[in-house]
Amino acid sequence: MNICVFLSAADLDERYTGPAREFAELIGKGGHTLVWGGSDSGLMKVVADGVQESGGRLVGISVDFLKEFARPGADEMVIAKDLAERKALLLARADAVVIMVGGAGTLDEATEILELKKHALHTKPVVLLNTAGFYDGLKQQFRRMDEEGFLPVPLTDLVFFAEDGVGALAYLEESAGVR
Q1: How many other CB atoms sit within 10 Å of the CB of residue 45?
Q2: Helix, strand, coil shares, percent, the chain, to 5
Q3: Fewest 10 Å CB contacts: which of 39, 97, 140, 170?
Q4: How does pLDDT run across 101-118, given as a tens digit for each residue?
Q5: Structure pTM?
Q6: Cβ atoms of 96 and 172 closer than 8 Å
């Protein structure tokens, strides 16, 4: 399975890097491919290292203005002309999407993926991995949107909230019929 992961390229605390490394190892040991932003820095590097060291493949989709940060040694690296093309390529190459901790860019990617799914422009499973409660506020906001009628489809049809990598991967594999 090609698993697209949206996440930060920042150097982060162990409370985020430890669980990210564990999730990456699960991806690699499961024989899956990581499709990610292609960066060789911060949390993106942690995840790419974990997947590669555990036997998984790496497909990076970087963007022209960040290409100097692209990971050497990825199985495949694509350079998009801009962020919009990058997001489209990431989704096109993925069988499933996982949203990990990140900043404004990750939030932009997450909301676009959910908006596309809401309009049935893709049907891929989406997991929001809530490491260390990072997305508690966003989870609460999405639930409020659902409860108050702002979502035309049930929230559970749009996104699965996982508290750890084991739960995230189990959901993805079950959704893909791997289990």
Answers
A1: 16
A2: 50, 20, 30
A3: 140
A4: 999 999 999 999 999 999
A5: 0.95
A6: yes
Is the distance from CB of 97 to CB of 124 less than 8 angstroms? yes
The residue type at 47: V
Tokens of 143: 């639930």
Q: pLDDT class for 178, splitting at 50, 70, 90?
A: low
**Distance from C-alpha of 26 to C-alpha of 23, rounded to nearest angstrom:** 5
Helix/strand number for the chain, H first, E second:
7, 7
Give residue 49's pLDDT: 98
For 156, list phi and psi in degrees, rounded to 5: -65, -20
| Type of residue found at 79 | I
Note whether 99 and 6 are within 8 A (CB).
yes
Residue indicated by tokens 């609460």: 140
